[in-house]
Amino acid sequence: MLSDSKISPSRLKKTIMVFRPYPIRISNEIYDGSYIYSGDYGDSIELDWDQINVGAYLGYPAQAVDEDMILEYLPSAPTLNELTSVTEKLRRIFPIDINLLKESIEDNEPVELYLNFFEQLDWDFFQESGFYSGIGDEGIELNRYLREYLNWLESELNYPITMLGTGPDLNHYIDRRPYVKRFYQRKDV
User: What crossing angle do the helices spanning 98-108 and 144-157 adopt, rounded to 10°?
Assistant: First the structure.
């Protein structure tokens, strides 16, 4: 209701915006086996779940996973495939369209950003919990690819990402607030 009225949720409470590295859409196949067009995700090119699975296993961007890598590594890779809740069809998955994400941030004026499904970027972080405070400090360390990805998102969005969701339980997250407070001097996180 607030979004439809173009009223920011920040007018009511502190807003934490949750997003994922690979947004999903419903299947184009419906319950009776016929097809509909369910739309794309902005300008993003649709990915295959095998790319996501192998990318997470190798710690590579899914867009960089080719057919040879899939053939070699898929038997060892995690299965991250998601089904729709009603039709139980395979969800469609895309890379982030940064412009759609920027629009959503502008519309919702969140105080914090929470990147969920972080394990889709690197399976080594599945069900991880703890703090990230930067390179060389105590706590969880992120590889170069993940640091560069987060830096890219934060610079494009002009917003710090304070939490990284790593699994299904409430305690499966990496808290980046110590890092954010130190490097962004944000008082409201």
Answer: 50
Please tell me the pTM assigned to this model.
0.85
* Domain total in the chain: 2
Q: What is the pLDDT of residues 89-99, one digit of tens each?
A: 889 999 999 99
Greater model confidence, 100 or 35: 100
Rounded to whole angstroms, the Cα distance separating 94 from 26 reads 11
Backbone angles phi, psi at 130, to 5 degrees: 150, -160
- For the stretch 33-43, pLDDT in tens is 777 777 778 88
Residues 142, 179: Cα–Cα separation, whole Å = 12
At 73, phi and psi to the nearest 5?
-105, -15
Q: Are 109 and 8 contacting, i.e. CB atoms less than 8 angstroms apart?
A: yes
Same domain for 103 and 179? yes
